[in-house]
Amino acid sequence: MDFPRRRPSKAAAAPIHGKLYVRSLIFTVAVLLAICVLALSRSPYAAAAQTGADAPDCAPGVDLLGFSDSLNKTTFEGTNVGGLSALTYDRQEGVYYSLVDNERDTRARFYTLDVPLDRSGLGDPSVLDVTFLRDASGQPFTGTNFDGEGLALTRRGDLLASSETEPSIRRFAPDGDLLEELPVPRKFRVAPVGEGRANQTFESLSLSPNGRSLFTANEGSLIADGETADGSDRIRILRYEDRGRGGFKPAEEFFYLAEPGQGVVEIAALSENELLVLERGFVAGEGNTVRIFRVYLKGAEDVSDEPTLAEPGLVPVEKELLVDLADCPPSGATSPGTQQNPLLDNFEALALGPRLPGGRRALILVSDDNFNPGQVTRVVALGARLR
């Protein structure tokens, strides 16, 4: 109910009006502040600023921007979305391509993914397209002869894909047609042809930003290289060099020492001399270990001619831990399996995403669920301050 207001005389009103004016001013300011807070809370830029400032830390200089299970156990155009073992970012199109490792006798393929990432964090990724890979005769590769584990986008728009079946590195057109197969040094071939161990070969693939160098590595040690007394695999990082019309040719090998019980599952090249290396391990009853290391190749010895990395005096490349995913907050994640941190799973894919405000770089990880109900397809976005 509204009450009629009486206007007091000027003489009587003077002192009372001063008090009312102050109270009214305070009330008005309070209302305006409340409106501003409400408006800012609804503004994407305000949310972004808050997220940027309050994003939970995983390690010094590395923030968790979010995770999503939106791709888990889904289908697209009659295919099962899963087994995602490699990821590469198409900066021109603003999309990602993710390679399926193998699904028995189904067709080998990669998916085009939308991974929405802005100042407010990670949205729900979705599948935009599926592309099937075909051999020189036009027949589809399948899980019986192609185990896709690494993926890189060339400057010409072709895709390089590694398979650890042989192992092999093949170049495909954007529509999935085979264009060529890169030469692989004999030592990396699976025994008895070479010294590679089955299911322990080319799990990774990355091009340097200028496209001149292509990096891959065997997941575990070659037979002749073995492991150290504490169970650390002696691994070879293989660098290919782009020789123009001659294509990519093997150029150098570097000695990389993995952590005990872990293998190299992905590489993301920061430059010709610096890499991010994703190591992954698994212990039954405990779960996965997922760590990203920054690796420095400048001044490292080329070990191409070394018959074994167990030779005394050989020094592995310098590396430092960037982030252990177990140190990230779970942030509401759940796991269908046993994990010390429910955010963890079988992460095998890592890609450098877009640059973020504040000088950070997006790092996108994807887990390979092996089409197993006890595992999850999960996308995790990190923001890293990379010098």
CATH topology of the largest domain: Tachylectin-2, Chain A
Give, in order, the helices and strands.
Answer: HHEEEEEEEEEEEEEEEEEEEEEEEEE
The total domain count is: 2
Distance between the termini: 65 Å
| Total strands | 25
| CATH architecture classification of the largest domain | 5 Propeller
Biggest sheet descriptor: 5 strands, antiparallel
Average pLDDT confidence is 88
Task: Determine the strand fraction and express it as a percent band.
Answer: 35-45%
- The total of helices stands at 2
Q: Portion of residues in helices?
A: 10-25%
**Spans where pLDDT lies below 50 across 5 or more residues:** 1-53
Report the structural category. mainly beta
Query: For the largest beta sheet, what order do the strands appear in spatially?
Result: 1-2-25-24-23
- What is the approximate shape? globular
Q: What's the level 1 CATH class of the largest domain?
A: Mainly Beta
